[in-house]
From TrEMBL:
One of its GO terms (molecular function) is oxidoreductase activity. Its cofactor is [2Fe-2S] cluster; FAD. It holds the Pfam family FAD_binding_6. The keyword GTP-binding does not apply. It comes from Caballeronia glathei. Keywords: 2Fe-2S, Iron, Iron-sulfur, Metal-binding. CDD domains: BenDO_FAD_NAD, fer2. PROSITE patterns: 2FE2S_FER_1 (PS00197), 2FE2S_FER_2 (PS51085), FAD_FR (PS51384). It comes from the Bacteria. Residues 105-203 form the FAD-binding FR-type domain. Residues 4-98 form the 2Fe-2S ferredoxin-type domain. This is NADH oxidase.
Length: 340
């Protein structure tokens, strides 16, 4: 029997993956990886190691006391890592920072393999990882050290987890640190990265999905769509991809390819420019079909600039839309993403 990948998501945004052997408890697997999860008794008595299992299957046994973990807490997804024995890959939210748990971001090196310019809007950056392929949750981001600048920039993966080739969709910013470097960078250039990070990622797929992307906020959805395709998802997925100008519509061919790969995938592209001849003009909130909202039985994922995120939130509030879950990530140029 193979081991399981356990993603530990710390409250400061850092994610670390540990290998958990069959029959092994999460606390022990983390300790083997030199990660000190919160604990005291390790016997299911104190409740100090309480975390939240966000996805995956597991067994908690019956050797803990109710004062440490009540039935209501158990039913809500809370677990004791000193008792939790995974029976699949799992994602666990840890209510402590990575530094408190004596760990930090994983760091690795990669080599640029391709740089593709998309007008003045964006750049597709492909890299080959020099060692072990990085593991991350689809939707997460990473910090890339910009060579020669002493600075880093944060970008969501547009590729699927676990591959030696990683890809990013990067917004062009005149005079920007990364944009300037990309103007002269060549295949073969070496880059240092650290991560993964972020709480914006694809959860267990149990109902229809509505993806809302603004500009280069498309990137994490390409990663999610690839994972859905590889797992042969039959769930309904609708993507609305909104941009300012016609020239900002990039990688539409990559989106179109998922129509064949995912049997229940549909998408709409929207351009805000009133002078555009695009068939769908305006804002994403004006092109949100009722069937995509599924009377609230839908999980909504949104990634875009702050004004777009705020507009969608207002739209939901004003129209009484209450999705089953709503995960969003705001991004601004030269700033790390903020999630909810």
């Amino acid at each position: 029997m193979s081991s399981y990948n356990i993603a530990l998501n710390f409250e400061d945004g850092v994610t670390r993956f540990v290998e958990c052997k069959p029959g092994q408890k999460v606390l022990d697997a983390a300790f083997r990886a030199k990660i000190n999860l919160p604990m005291d008794c390790s016997d299911g008595v104190c409740g100090t190691c309480k975390c939240r299992a966000e996805s995956g299957s597991y067994d908690l046994g019956d050797e803990y006391i109710e004062d440490a973990l009540s039935e209501d807490e158990k039913d809500s997804g809370l677990v004791l890592t000193c008792q939790m024995v995974p029976t699949s890959d799992c994602v666990i939210a840890v209510p402590a920072s990575s530094t408190v748990c004596k760990t930090e971001q994983s760091k690795f090196a990669a080599t640029v393999s391709r740089i593709e310019q998309h007008n003045d809007a964006a750049v597709v950056l492909d890299m080959n990882v020099d060692a072990t392929a990085p593991v991350f949750l689809p939707g997460q981001y990473i910090n890339i050290d910009v060579p020669g600048s002493g600075q880093y920039r944060s970008y969501s993966f547009s590729s699927a987890p676990g591959e030696s080739k990683i890809s990013f969709l990067i917004k062009k910013i005149p005079g920007g640190v990364m944009s300037t470097w990309l103007e002269s960078a060549q295949p073969g250039s070496k880059v240092e990265l650290a991560g993964p990070l972020g709480s914006f990622y694809l959860r267990a797929v149990e109902r229809p999905l509505l993806f809302l992307a603004g500009g280069t906020g498309l990137a994490p959805f390409l990663s999610m769509l690839e994972v859905l395709a590889r797992t042969d998802s039959q769930q309904k997925v609708h993507l609305i991809y909104g941009v300012t100008r016609d020239l900002d519509l990039v990688q539409v061919d990559a989106i179109e390819a998922y129509v064949a790969k995912l049997p229940n995938f549909t998408y709409t592209t929207v351009v805000a420019d009133a002078d555009s001849n695009h068939p769908h003009k305006g804002w994403v909130t004006q092109h949100m079909p009722a069937e995509a909202l599924n009377d609230g039985d839908v999980d909504v994922y949104l990634c875009g600039p702050p004004p777009m995120v705020d507009a969608v939130r207002r739209h939901f509030d004003d129209n009484g839309v209450k999705p089953n879950s709503f995960h969003y990530e705001k991004f601004t140029p030269n700033a790390a993403p903020r999630t909810a």
